[in-house]
Fold:
Amino acid sequence: LKHLGHATHAKAIEQALFTVLKRGDMRTADVMGTTSTTDFTAGVINSYYKISSKVLLGACVRVCVYSQTHC
Structure:
């Protein structure tokens, strides 16, 4: 995604993945866990939505402040 110009979203996906792995409660068999890949993926997606909503809201605030308009 970075090379396609979507660095913000690439970073959010990366952060979501690391957030789930760091929590330690959702690990698939290949990393010594018992979580299904479906549940792991759902955890990463949920984490991504939380992270990306904050990132996108922050971007909107910066644009509004810069352009002195209301979002």
Observations:
- Helices lie at 7-23, 37-67.
- The mean pLDDT is 81.
- Residues 51 and 65 are 21 Å apart (CA to CA).
- Residues 37-67 form the longest helix (31 residues).
